Amino acid sequence: MIIFARHAQTKAGEEERFEGLADSSLTDLGERQAKALGIFLRDKKIHEVVVSPRKRAFITAKLALQGMQKEILVNTNLAEVCYGAWEHKKKDTIKKTKLWEVRQNDPFHFVHPGMYLSQPGESYSMLYERSKNTLLSLKATQKNVLVVSHLGILRCVYMFFSGIDEREFVSSQFANTVLCVVSHKNTIRFFDYFNQKEVLV
Questions:
Q1: Per-residue pLDDT for the chain (201 aa), expressed as one digit of tens each?
Q2: Rounded to an integer, what distance in angstroms lies between the CA atom of residue 113 and that of residue 84?
Q3: Measured torsion, CA atoms of residues 188, 139, 53, 195, in degrees rounded to the nearest 10
Q4: Hey, what CATH class is 2-199 in?
Q5: Which 3 state secondary structure label does DSSP give 158?
Q6: Are 197 and 178 spatial neighbours (Cβ–Cβ below 8 Å)?
């Protein structure tokens, strides 16, 4: 079983800012969300924990795993898409630009412009290609693994295991408290651990 979780709510997320390579702290609600993830995990017999290199994913995992004595492994392929020059910008501001209109024509292949911290912007198609080897490795494991990453990676998981198309990839939305559980038979289900209910996508 592989449990793919998003990081908990961050300050940038609360402010509706682009946050890929950029990083911000968890909000108070985010910390409560992370602890609720820990309650969900109590009876899951997790063997391995893998996180994105972003601090928000590591802190979410650390809070969720309090008292569980688990090593947290970092996998750079699980980082969120880099939004380039749009990083940490308000989404409402970017949506008023001509480049946003260009993005709407083909959001899956649109390469986000410019750079952030010397890293060029990426497209969602680049993110999917980057994540595939890691997903292939996880698919082959017989361990119970917790993966804490990002919205973009959950979309990649959905495409990889369910075969959704590019349009569905871009339109798929998962709240910070929605996680994806993939069984050893590669069946896929979504749960909102904060509200304790299964989610239909």
A1: 999 999 999 999 999 999 999 999 999 999 999 999 999 998 888 999 999 999 999 999 999 999 787 889 999 999 999 999 999 999 999 999 999 999 999 999 999 999 999 999 999 999 999 999 999 999 999 899 999 999 999 999 999 999 999 999 999 999 999 999 998 888 899 999 988 888 877
A2: 6
A3: 20
A4: alpha beta
A5: helix
A6: no
